[in-house]
Amino acid sequence: MRLVVSLSVALCLGLAVQVSLGSAEELNPDGAVVVAQGDVPAADELGDTPKTTTKKETKKTKKKAKTKKAKKKAKAKKKPKHDEVRKKVVGEEVKPKDGFAAPYSYDNLGRGFDGADCTHQGLDIGGVGESAGVGTPVHAIVKAEVIFIGTPETNPKKFGKRDKRKGTETRSGVKVPRRLEVEGYGEVYPFTTSNGSSRTGVFIKTRVLEGELAEHSVRYMHLSAVRPGLAVGDIVEPGDELGLMGATGFEDNLPHLHIDIEDPDELRVDPAPFLGLQEVRPSSCTPINKKKKAKERKLKKGKGKKGGKTKKDGSRKTIRYTVEKGDTLNSIAQEFGVTKADLIRRNDLADPDSLKAGQKVKIVVYE
Fold first, then answer.
1. In angstroms, rounded to a whole number, what is the distance separating the alpha carbons of residues 235 and 233?
2. What gap in Å lies between CA 110 and CA 8, rounded to an integer?
């Protein structure tokens, strides 16, 4: 009796085990146990064991993120977006001072006047429109006399060699044609294959005739061409066309116009306020060569030579001499006690033997 009960219990238990296994396993026809797919997680689903983070590590991570965010914020504040700066500079009420005119559109202002002790002492205005603005007109900012015109054709060593190749030049990701036809100018070449010693490219220098900047010189650089017919001795009015936007005299960056103003003592003046621009894009100052600055200070104190004459008390006088018939650079130099080389340098004379009666010559003497 006991044996029968035991066998019954064993059979029941076996059946229970088989039923239990059926929920997690299947028996194939051969009797082998097959584990049901999907019931056991794959190894890559299990993942890594969660890493315990200490309070110290959490604090360090938060501090790092905070520092990174602060640096990013400071950088954005230091270098504002160009469009934001342009709006701040230009706005809707921009108007040059009386007697002055805008040289070009202000829609793409570049670098401004960095300071008296910095190398960039002028204003850069970028080209606007198709082909980065090359071939568009550049205008005189004030009434002045044209006293010098420099081009690669007159002196390639000084103003760069003209690039007359076909095709395009890529500047800052923009493709600009190396040659183009402009009405009234003919074929124009906006680039040079070398910077030239002056690094100005096509260059026009004028002398202001009246007003607040009388006797100051205004220089327009990097043009692609000079207006046909414009010559030394011509008088230009504010807004008169001088030439065309270009990229001569430098081998990178987009086409732009560089304007600077120099007083009678050859010190640079910020052009922005005269053109209705109170503030221009911030830029880092590249200091002027220290040796050069030291030499200039030495000369101002009356120690050393400049213009072929020793300075005794440091006083300096600028004279605008009107050339008379029969004058030569040698005779003028002897009369004022300066050197011929100094006259050539101060007046940017491309051809020293081509003086004309009525021409103005700048002479700096020390008393």
1. 7
2. 100
Spell out the domain ranges in the chain. Answer: 76-288, 292-366
CA distance 241 to 216: 20
First to last CA, the chain: 145
Measure the CA angle with vertex 216, ends 343 and 154; round to 5°: 50
- CA angle, residues 173, 174, 176, in degrees to nearest 5: 140
Return the SS3 of 131.
helix
292-366 CATH, one of 3.30.70.20, 2.40.420.20, 3.10.350.10, 3.40.50.200: 3.10.350.10
Give ∠ CA 212-215-219 in degrees, rounded to 5: 95
CA distance 246 to 219: 15
Tell me how far apart the alpha carbons of residues 75 and 361 are, in angstroms, rounded to a whole number: 49
Helix (H) or strand (E) holding 75: helix 55-78
C-alpha to C-alpha distance for 120 and 286, rounded to whole angstroms: 7
Which amino acid makes up residue 137?
P
Low-confidence ranges of the chain (pLDDT < 70): 1-57, 59-60, 62, 66, 68-93, 278-284, 288-316, 366-367
Q: What is the CA radius of gyration of the chain?
A: 39
Alpha-carbon distance 123 to 113, whole Å? 6
Owner of token pair 């009678």: 264
* Whether the Cβ atoms of residue 262 and residue 268 lie closer than 8 Å to each other: yes
What is the tens place of the pLDDT at every residue in 242-261? Answer: 999 999 999 888 999 999 99
Per DSSP, the three-state class of 124 is strand
DSSP code per residue over 118-184: BS--SEEEE--SGGGGTT-EEE-SB-EEEEEEE-TTT-HHHH--B---SSEEEETTEEEES-EEETT
pLDDT per residue as tens digits for the range 140-176: 999 999 999 999 999 999 999 999 999 999 998 899 9
Do 240 and 140 touch, CB atoms closer than 8 A?
A: yes
Q: Kindly report the CATH class assigned to 76-288.
A: mainly beta
